Amino acid sequence: MSSLPLDLISDILSRLPVKPLLRFRCVSKCFCSLIDSQDFVKLHLNQAIETNSGLSLIVPTLTSDNKFFSLELDSVDNPVEIEYPFKKYNRGHTSVIGCCHGLLAMFNRRLGMSVFNPTTKKFKLFPQFWSDCYTDYMTNNFHFDGFGYDASTDDYKLVRIIQSYKVDYLEVIIYSLKADTWRRTREFPYYILDDRCNGVFIAGALHWLAARGSVRTGQNMILAFDLKSEKFYEVQQPHGMKGGFCSQVGVLRGCLWINSYYHDEPRCDIWVMKEYGSQQSWSKLCSFSKMLHETCYYTEAFAFSKDGDKALIYQHSRCLHWYNLKDHKQDVIEIRNENQSLWDAFICMGSLASIDAYTTVGVDTV
């Protein structure tokens, strides 16, 4: 092995899953140094993004003990419980803000925010940079968070939008992990429509469903926040979506998607933007009617099967199922060893990414 060029060794190792790579760190000091290097971490991450490999589903349950499970896409019926940063404190509810490059951003109202790699178990707790403005407007207050990566500065950023119904208060806070600083702006002429919606990261931007103005206008849109320029912009919706009400936005195999709900039928269509920024590239992926549950209002698409003929769908009636894109049949997934209701679900890519290189303070391990 020592006779092989280092570039070739790196290329071979970059194609392996994270768990064996963590074991290979013990082979030699050379292997450990290589696998821990930021150049290799980025090479492995780019390989995973390009091949869309190493994906798992992170699923929190709707229970008082606030459990989180990881489900491999090849065996989504067999969950593995995750030990996460806030679990040992058992204080309040913990939710997932978003996932980027295999890092989960998590929020606990009492303990703050954390960025956590569920594969390597490394995490970092961050200061409550929103506290002095958040407390004053606690009543009738909603916050909408997002987590993503700014490639122009090689920096991860946390974004929080605070929206108060009582005093018509709006504020956007952007926190840089690399600089350990945050800034605030009141320049936000929008209204986030979904009180359970966190920003979806794709193409260097976070995305929410919103309406222009401080009141509900009935005309919703896709609102994006560019992490490089730190400016908001609007993404055009599909031409063929007239008459529908959008309730969700997400990412499916590197493409932005949006759903459109029709109250009269009822029916929910999922549209995929195959080329980001091109309105003409929107294509309808599938349609759901009132087939399995009482509602299809919250319907999300997470991933495709290996052969691409099925899509993994989550309905907010707390049901996971595979949807066959050819014959339109739906196979409900019965998760073994876990009879509790699912609260939400997130796609996470297995990676070696760590925030060690993006912070000057210590990183802990679960």
Short description:
With 366 residues, this protein is mostly beta strands. Helices cover 11% and strands 40% of the residues. The chain has helices at 6-13, 18-24, 29-36, 38-51, 131-134; strands spanning 55-60, 68-72, 80-81, 94-100, 103-108, 112-116, 122-126, 141-150, 155-164, 169-176, 181-185, 190-192, 200-202, 205-212, 221-226, 231-235, 249-252, 255-262, 267-273, 282-289, 299-304, 310-315, 319-324, 330-332, 346-349, 364-365.
Instruction: Please identify the structural class as seen in this structure.
Output: mainly beta
SS summary, helix count: 5
- What is the percent of helical residues? 10-25%
Rg over CA atoms, rounded to whole Å, is: 21 Å
Q: Total strand count, please?
A: 26
Uncertain segments of ≥5 residues (pLDDT<50)?
A: 133-138
Please state how the strands of the largest beta sheet are arranged side by side: 4-5-6-7-26
Look at the structure and give the mean pLDDT: 81
Measured distance between first and last alpha carbons:
33 Å
Largest β sheet strand count, sense and barrel closure: 5 strands, antiparallel
Shape: globular
The share of residues in extended strands comes to 35-45%
